[in-house]
Amino acid sequence: MLILDEAQVRQHLTYEALLPVLEQTLVRVSTGAIIQPVRSVLAIPERDGRFVLMPAVDGDLMGVKLVTFFEQNISLPTHQAVIQLFSATTGEPLAVLDGRLITEMRTAAVTAIAARLFTPHKPLTVAILGSGVQARSHLTALRLVRELGEVRVWSRNPANAAAFAHATGAVPLPLEEAIRGADMVVGVANVSQPLILGRYLGGRYLGDTQFVAAIAAVGPARRELDDEAMRHASIIVESAEAARLESGDIIASGAPIYAELGEILAGTTPPPPEESRIVYKGLGIAAEDLAVARIVYEAALG
Q1: What domains are there in the chain, each with its CATH number?
Q2: Could you read off the pLDDT of 92-142 as tens digits, one per residue?
Q3: What is the pTM of this model?
Q4: Residue 201 — very low, low, confident or very high, per pLDDT cuts 50/70/90?
Q5: What is the distance between the alpha carbons of residues 302 and 294, in angstroms, rounded to a whole number?
């Protein structure tokens, strides 16, 4: 059985390779060609942690991602994972892959796919809320699908925002200023309460036509957008089944889901009107991890 650590996984992954593969994967999810139940989550309350199981079957390959979220980690990443691959023909174990980088890159790549569908063809002003791993990976992936003009960054930690700005050329700004007038708002800060608001004290954070990629809050009790931000938006998801069970933003606001990404990519559902607010609520699904793990596994076999 093949065992691949993160350094070996990195050798075989590029965003250029991920984007077309993940587009086809999202289409296959929406047509039912890939089998994937909603993830199972086991809480570890004494350590403020979660242990997550994400299985999927796609043709001749099946796999399960085992993910840990330990939010109090300081010297270690808060998110860690392994992916176990099996033959879907014989059940034979094939490989174990480190899953941290796969999770990082597939998350940003799917956001980039959504941005390509829902943002205008012009230099974009992008507001990134958060300054960690996902902020950097999202910026890298977005630059492959759109020309970026001004990049803004907000973080709870001003030093982290300044470091991100220095490394990437972004402009650190207060939250409201970062969001106001941006073509695209990317939510990747670790939050459980709404950070992106439709209105506040008679004013606005979000405009009526901004595209929001909301990636940060996964789980039925966690939110990153308030009701006003959700109410007047077309909501796009990877899996409607998963979103109705796992997105606190959708559950609490009661906002209807407009479509899955795969339905729009396949042309079975038209895109929302261009002059509207579109929210891509990203949760991450097992089919994406399996598709990326397949790329690495097949490349490693040569």
Answers
A1: 2-102+287-301 (3.30.1780.10), 110-284 (3.40.50.720)
A2: 999 999 999 999 999 999 999 999 999 999 999 999 999 999 999 999 999
A3: 0.95
A4: low
A5: 12
